[in-house]
Amino acid sequence: QVQLVESGGGLVQAGGSLRLSCAAAGRTFSTYAMGWFRQAPGKEREFVAAVTWSARSTTYADSVKGRFTIASDNAKSTVYLQMNSLKPEDTAIYYCAARRGKISGQYEYWGQGTQVTVSS
Questions:
Q1: Which residues lie below 8 Å from residue 82, measured CB to CB, with a gap of 6+?
Q2: Which are the contacts of 30, defined by CB distance < 8 A and separation ≥ 6?
């Protein structure tokens, strides 16, 4: 059973930074891809960023490129999302997800989400 637990959300002013963490347990994740998604009120869930545990491959949504950085720490089985230059439109519940194999495709496992609120 895969378990994903997010943390690090909160309230921040526009232009500020937050770092989200996703602690993974229950598998050997070396062959998994890990992703961050978000869902704003009244909107569909959208992809934010993803990384392979080997960190050889990363990908970002256009809306966060240059501002967000995803990274994995294999020793801690933790994936991070460093969010800089935050904007009010980044306000959403952020979810960590995992899937076997490549970054692209449907994600199988999901965390419970962490709220990020950016005030203007």
A1: 17, 19, 68, 69, 70, 71
A2: 53, 54, 74
Span 13-69, pLDDT tens digits: 999 999 999 999 987 777 889 999 999 999 999 999 999 877 779 999 999 999 999
Residue 48: exposure state from Cβ atoms within 10 A (0-12, 13-18, ≥19): buried
Residue whose pair of structure tokens reads 């959403």 in the numeric block: 92
Handedness of CA 114, 50, 60, 74 (dihedral sign): positive
Joined together, the tokens standing for residue 3 give 């378990």
* CA–CA dist 74, 120 (Å, integer): 36
